[in-house]
Design a protein that fits this description.
Blueprint (H helix, E strand, L loop, with lengths): L7 H15 L7 H8 L13 H21 L5 H20 L8 H30 L7 H31 L8 E4 H18 L3 E5 L7 E4 L1 H17 L5 E9 L2 E8 L6 H4 L19 H11 L5 E4 L5 E8 L3
């Protein structure tokens, strides 16, 4: 059962904006909206509301909360996205009770709009940063170029987090379509490697890739969804590995192919294995991020008619693995 108490990040936000969220909320919806905005609120009298009124009140609070968070410089990019996820989770708990986090269609539509609105300026920012790095807007000093590359890395990370969040919403609503077709392993690895190798190198980690020697080797799956799975698994491996290596392996096994990501990090404790694929779960409470990557990866793997497995390595670290079909 999930607690109705807000997370520390939401508490920080509500302490600053809680009163403002209720200011112009329709009177009929104030009891429900107050539960969202004030963790200490105790309803008085008859607070039975129609579904329409509850939805309107929560939608009002959620929309205003996200607008405030999006414009508050006190919340960094990744922290802001985490706050968005936690706010919608809180709204879902209040709307449906502590045993459920199912999102209403209204909330889903609102989140989709907000996420796409966030992406539009991000695409523009990323485009200009890439133009500057290529020299299209004139020469830069080495320090300026390094700064632009940091900005580009962070914009790519935020863009990927938005993708993960949108994937989660689509998966929850059954809106995700898997386009299963032949995928060149070399193409899948190239796209994934470009996105993560630099991140591993900045931590001093060896980034290894083991694939079939045949450059035309193909597997069956959805290229974009497989790339998202691998990016999430590799990002997770890099996050929890301080020294050593990260290894992406694609290994033929008869009619199937095993895809695995192994690391030399801290491994996964047994009591965590049972929850590691839950949405919003963080194995390390100090870890930043919405905690959706592994949950989305698990569901996308299952959409490929497979199972995402996790095990600890004998020499330390952990391995996440799943299988897909090889092209005949």
């Amino acid at each position: 059962m999930q607690s109705n108490q807000p997370t520390p990040l939401v508490s920080q936000f509500l302490g600053k904006y809680g009163d403002a969220l209720l200011k112009d909320c329709p009177e009929a919806g104030k009891p429900q909206a107050a539960r969202f905005a004030d963790p200490q609120h105790q309803p008085k009298g008859d607070t039975t509301l129609s579904t329409a009124v509850m939805t309107a009140a929560l939608k009002h609070c959620l929309e205003r909360a996200m607008t405030a968070a999006a414009t508050d410089p006190g919340f960094a990019g990744s922290q802001r996205l985490e706050l968005f996820v936690e706010l919608q989770s809180r709204a879902a708990q209040i709307a449906n009770g502590p045993k459920s986090t199912a999102l209403s269609d209204d909330v889903v539509d609102l989140l989709n709009i907000l996420m796409h609105d966030l992406r539009s300026p991000l695409v523009t920012i990323r485009g200009y940063v890439e133009m500057m790095i290529r020299g299209n807007l004139g020469p830069m000093t080495p320090i300026q170029e390094r700064s632009m590359r940091v900005a580009l890395r962070n914009s790519i990370t935020l863009d990927d987090q938005i993708d993960t969040f949108l994937d989660y919403i689509r998966l929850e609503q059954g809106r995700t379509i898997i386009a299963r077709k032949p995928v060149l392993v070399s193409k899948l690895v190239q796209r994934t490697r470009e996105a993560l190798e630099e991140l591993a190198e900045r931590k001093g980690l060896d980034f290894n890739v083991v694939t079939p020697q045949d450059e035309d080797f193909e597997i069956v799956g959805d290229l974009d969804k497989l790339r998202r799975i691998l990016r999430s698994l590799l990002d997770n491996a890099i996050k929890f590995t301080e020294e050593g290596h990260i290894t992406l392996s694609i290994t033929p096994m008869g009619d199937n192919v095993e895809i695995s990501v192994a690391d030399s990090g801290i491994g996964v404790e047994e009591h965590i294995k049972a929850r590691i694929f839950e949405p919003f779960f963080q194995a390390d409470p100090d870890t930043r991020g919405p905690g959706l990557g592994l949950a989305v990866s698990k569901t996308l793997v299952e959409a490929h008619q497979s199972t995402l497995r996790v095990s600890n390595n004998a020499d330390g670290g952990a391995t996440f693995a799943f299988t897909v079909s090889a092209v005949d």
